[in-house]
Amino acid sequence: VIATMRDLRKRDALEAAAGAALGRTLRIERLDVCSDASVAECMATIPGGHVDVLGDNAGVGRVGPLESIPVQEMQQLFDTNVFGAARVIQAVLPGMKRRRRGHIVVISSVMGLQGIVFNDVYAASKFAVEGLCESLAVQLLQFNV
């Protein structure tokens, strides 16, 4: 198992929770889903790049009315929540399709199904994640992914 996080300086709690598994059956690697280079570097640490199960729970939130959120902040949120998921899926998908097996689990939010007041941008990003995953699920059936 490889657990990833953007900032390895914050890994103390994860290491403590891992206990004896750390270094034996669990590794912690750096992965910033907003960076193509970081995704490639992380994939390079995986023997053969062979990923059987991808659990993608990277995400950020933002509360506030639409008119109060600068477009640049919206883009950053979408970069993590939507494009980050897409980057990581793109990295593992060719191998899964080639092996004709694998699982991709993307953690979204109820706000990907129904928007809530003052969560406009966050909900929009989660609706995008839902659409991406629903479409992929149908396409990947033929590959047993």
TrEMBL record:
GO MF terms held by the record: all-trans-retinol dehydrogenase (NAD+) activity
Question: Per its UniProt record, what InterPro entries does this chain match?
Answer: NAD(P)-bd_dom_sf (IPR036291), Sc_DH/Rdtase_CS (IPR020904), SDR_fam (IPR002347)
Q: Does the keyword GTP-binding apply?
A: no
The UniProt entry, under Pfam families, shows: adh_short
Q: Name one GO cellular component term.
A: cytosol
Q: Which UniProt keywords apply?
A: Oxidoreductase
> Which biological process, per GO, is one annotated for this protein?
retinol metabolic process
Keyword Oxidoreductase carried by entry: yes
Stated family: Belongs to the short-chain dehydrogenases/reductases (SDR) family.
Full protein name: RDH8 dehydrogenase
Which organism is the protein's source? Crypturellus soui
Tell me the name of the encoding gene: Rdh8_2
